[in-house]
Amino acid sequence: MNICDSDMISETLLSYGAARVSSLADADIAVLNTCSVRAQAEQKAFSFLGRAEDFKKEKNPRLKIAVIGCMAQRLGTKIKKRFNTVDLIVGAKDIDNAAQLIMRLEVGRRREEGRINNTAATSSSLLPPTSYLSNIVRYVTIMRGCDNYCSYCVVPFVRGKEISLPVEQIYNECKNMAENGAKEIMLLGQNVNSYQFGDTNFAALIKKVSSIDAVKRIRFMTNHPKDLNDDLINTMASEQKVCAHIHLPMQSASNSILKAMNRKYAYEHYLGLVEKLRSKIPDINITTDIIVGFPGETEEDFQASLKAVKDIRFGGLYVFRYSPRPQTKASEMKDNIPLEEKKRRHAIILEESNKISIEIAAQSVGTVQEVLTEKYENAVLEARTRSGRKVFVKGGKEHLGKNINVLIKEAKINSLFGDIINP
Q1: What is the reported pTM?
Q2: How many other C-beta atoms are found inside a 10 Å radius of the C-beta of residue 107?
Q3: 3-state DSSP call for residue 420?
Q4: 285-322 residue pLDDT tens
Q5: Residues 366-389, buried b or exposed e (16+ Cβ, 10 A)?
Q6: Domains observed in the chain
Q7: What is the side-by-side strand order in the sheet with 64-69?
Q8: Distance CA 172, CA 175 (A)
Q9: DSSP letter for each residue of 272-326
């Protein structure tokens, strides 16, 4: 979603006559789009700001620095106090106005001391730019915010309440992108499968987007298990353009931890969803998120999650060490799992996941996979299967943006390698 927001802002700036550059030395404006989901993300942002501030003071006093997004929303003026060279702060709830505010810096209007809107944006203010770059894979935000209030998550506090964007707006945006070269559309939301605009739910929206002839593939993320229903599963199974991949965060397989996380489902419900998905879509690739070291997580709780990883055999997963986030309910709990123990649990889950991933990937060796080529560099094409796995193959630029057949010859944890074959 941050990539999507960055693309939206970048394209608006380009439409105003700005140009991208690859280094601070060539920049008039540096824009840092931030995340607050984990402490590590904020630490990385602070590290960048420190480097940018030093560069501005020592080499280019005219450089303007803008900080936008979730960390800007959460910390606001604290960022300004810590880094007095920052010229603009735009919180996540005002992200749709970021490009216009950034351009003010360039045209010499008054210096912004900070702009943080503490009311959620309305759907009418979230209109996308009217022109798009001809990228092969494009991201489309269909909703913003979140109403779930998982006890560990800061998103509802920095992104606001759920707002589903109008169906026709999303349809027109997807159509515009497809007519300008996009082959695959990724529908995005903090809780994408809770989309509801009038009488249109998420399954109906997918069918609407699927009706666009120029759209060849549809993906979406991220899903919440409590909102994954039969209607959506059946739509995934019946609509040929919908890719056979779903990212379905489990977070834990311990019901006591899931309850403490306020996830609103039990592990048995999650396992039932996995079984339904695989029954309806046998070749589906299910990926997930897991948090280890949540307050109160016992060794028994951890072993339940490890067993779930072995039993379900995810195609891939992201495992995170719990870190308290301000304002959340979990931040009021005692963070009683030592860092070294969090690291141990993290390493065990990751090792098991990597073992399973390579076993699953190896099953593709010797098969022919239809892939969509997304990037080209140094005579190598980067593509993706319908199940979401990356494929690298030698080939010419004429294959870029096309579906090609590839004979898979080698498999690694996250990537496949092969040769182009005739249809």
Answers
A1: 0.86
A2: 7
A3: strand
A4: 999 999 999 999 999 999 999 999 999 999 999 999 99
A5: eeebebbbbbbeeeebbbbbbbbb
A6: 2-107 (3.40.50.12160), 120-243 (3.30.750.210), 245-361 (3.30.750.200), 368-421 (2.40.50.140)
A7: 29-34, 64-69, 88-91
A8: 5
A9: HHHHHHHHH-TT-EEEEEEEES-TT--HHHHHHHHHHHHHH--SEEEEEE----T
